[in-house]
Write a structure and sequence with these properties.
single chain; 380 residues; alpha+beta; four-stranded antiparallel beta sheet; two-stranded antiparallel ribbon; 14 helices; globular
Length: 380
């Protein structure tokens, strides 16, 4: 019953998010129509009207892109102010990662996110670290930028097209600030406001957040999960894992067991976490399903079990994350062991190798290659 109630709550929050963006789209549409209505005369060549609309539509998408950059820059700026150090900065699938004191461009897409700024945290003092400014810095920067764009809108009213684009920048900035600053669970991920709210109320969640940042820091340095400190992967109690930040420690423990190739323990723990009433986000749950399918296929490989796990929702998720290493590994094994289609499996493996070249964490790539080799050996 509690799981159903939680799922309904998340769905309503998703509907609110969609409603906000529909409202913003409607407002931008009205602004465009008003501009064309006031500035394009009835006897004007229709090409001028279409050109104006095209410029405004392009301006709207540019405004979204600008505000996304501003949002992630806000996390970076307020993170640096709070004592954090740069680790990675991603906009859409373009990711700049600090590797061996050099910043390199990589590619990574994560469903449900337009960007992400990850940083190395300062040391914990008395079990605490500064976290509110880092988590809410993106929304704060969007609000500041929106004020600036609105002022520019006022002072540029006599310039063609530009004022409308600036006003859309201001409106979109406020929308992004609300979407990320007001605590909500948005399907595959929790937003910044939800994370900040969760962290400030729970010391275990705060420590979990610190460990997540440290794990990411070590991944960027080339260390595999199996080689990281054991104490970072202690599985919390079932009660503690009701918190969305704390349950990530359980997820990391599963990932580490997969890297250690302890598949029996990994499957046992994943099943347990998926069965209990936890705060696990959709992204981690769906990736966990991929790992459980993999374990089933290299062991008993029961077709009915795989068909049951591979739901419509899971297929949709895997399509959205089609260039993610563990998803590609799962697709490869599905083709190899479930469908018995060697040609398709080789095509997926080729795509894996192509995506691997620009993937930010090469240690993960090595781990996934090993898992694919195990599956290939099982085929023989």
């Amino acid at each position: 019953m509690k799981k159903k109630e939680a799922k309904k709550k998340i769905q309503w929050q998703q509907y609110i998010a969609v409603a906000i963006f529909m409202l913003i789209g409607g407002v931008c549409g009205v602004l465009m129509a008003q501009y064309v209505g006031k500035n394009v005369q009835p006897d004007t060549f229709i090409g001028v009207e279409l050109f104006s609309l095209a410029c405004l539509f392009l301006g709207m998408y540019v405004a979204i892109f600008i505000q996304l950059i501003i949002h992630e820059a806000g996390h970076l700026v307020f993170g640096l102010v709070s004592g954090y150090k740069f680790s990675s900065f991603r906009i859409f699938s373009f990711m700049w990662v600090k590797e061996n004191e050099k910043v390199r461009l990589r590619r990574l897409s994560i469903a449900g996110t337009g960007g992400q700024c990850l940083m190395s945290p300062p040391d914990m003092k008395d079990g605490k670290i500064p976290l509110v400014l880092y988590n809410l810095g993106g929304s704060l920067m969007n609000v500041i930028a929106s004020v600036v764009f609105f002022v520019l809108y006022i002072v540029t009213k006599n310039i063609p097209l530009l004022p409308v684009i600036l006003l859309m920048c201001a409106i979109i900035g406020v929308a992004i600030a609300i979407m990320n600053g007001v605590p909500m669970r948005l399907g595959t991920v929790d937003n910044d406001g939800y994370n900040a709210f969760s962290l400030t109320r729970n010391n275990d969640a705060m420590r979990s957040f610190w460990i997540q940042m440290k794990v990411n820091e070590q991944l960027a340095k080339g260390m595999r999960l199996k080689d990281m400190p054991d104490e970072w992967f202690t599985v919390p109690s079932d009660e503690a894992m009701k918190n969305s930040m704390v349950v990530v420690m359980g997820v990391f423990a599963c990932n580490r067991l997969m890297d250690q190739q302890d598949f029996q323990e990994a499957d046992k723990l994943m099943k347990h976490i998926m069965d209990i009433d936890s705060g696990m986000v959709g992204l981690h749950r769906s990736l966990m399903v991929c790992d459980r399918m993999y374990i089933e296929m290299i062991s008993e490989n029961r077709k009915e079990i795989i068909d049951e796990i591979l739901t419509k929702e899971q297929k949709q998720f895997m399509k959205q994350m089609k260039k993610f290493p563990s998803v590609l590994r799962t697709e490869y094994v599905l083709a190899l062991l479930h469908d018995k289609d060697d040609a398709k499996a080789e095509q997926i493996k080729a795509l894996f190798e192509k995506c691997a070249k620009s993937y930010p964490y090469q240690n993960d790539v090595i781990s996934e290659r090993e898992l694919m080799d195990i599956a290939k050996a099982a085929r023989l």
